[in-house]
Amino acid sequence: MADVLTAEAVEQELGGLDGWSGDPTGISRSVELAGFPAAIAVVDRVAETAEQLDHHPDIDIRWRTVTFRCVTHSVGGVTRRDVDLARRIDEIIRSAR
Ligand SMILES: C[C@H](O)[C@H](O)[C@H]1CNC2=NC(N)=NC(=O)C2=N1
């Protein structure tokens, strides 16, 4: 069972990510893409990565703005797996813009 990160550890990890905020209850990032199809394309790539990692973000899609939230539901808090997933989401967003 993965450990929930401390507030200090989450704070430190946020510094290495692009535009994420949060605390040990969850970390999130919103991104505005070129349009709805571009937003869906990013979500589709994130879905593929999430399946590979067997770790899935909560996703909110509003026209071309997508919000990703990473938390390990099974332990009720942010773990290393969420930070790793967030990093992968950043890579996908970076390559899509
Ligand atoms: C069986 C499977 O490993 C689990 O249900 C996984 C799937 N993806 C998951 N994703 C997230 N974010 N939290 C989980 O607890 C989780 N559990």
Automatic annotation (TrEMBL):
<comment type="similarity">
    <text>Belongs to the pterin-4-alpha-carbinolamine dehydratase family.</text>
</comment>
<dbReference type="Pfam" id="PF01329">
    <property type="entry name" value="Pterin_4a"/>
</dbReference>
<dbReference type="InterPro" id="IPR001533">
    <property type="entry name" value="Pterin_deHydtase"/>
</dbReference>
<dbReference type="GO" id="GO:0008124">
    <property type="term" value="F:4-alpha-hydroxytetrahydrobiopterin dehydratase activity"/>
</dbReference>
<keyword id="KW-0456">Lyase</keyword>
<dbReference type="InterPro" id="IPR036428">
    <property type="entry name" value="PCD_sf"/>
</dbReference>
<protein>
    <recommendedName>
        <fullName>Putative pterin-4-alpha-carbinolamine dehydratase</fullName>
        <ecNumber>4.2.1.96</ecNumber>
    </recommendedName>
</protein>
<dbReference type="GO" id="GO:0006729">
    <property type="term" value="P:tetrahydrobiopterin biosynthetic process"/>
</dbReference>
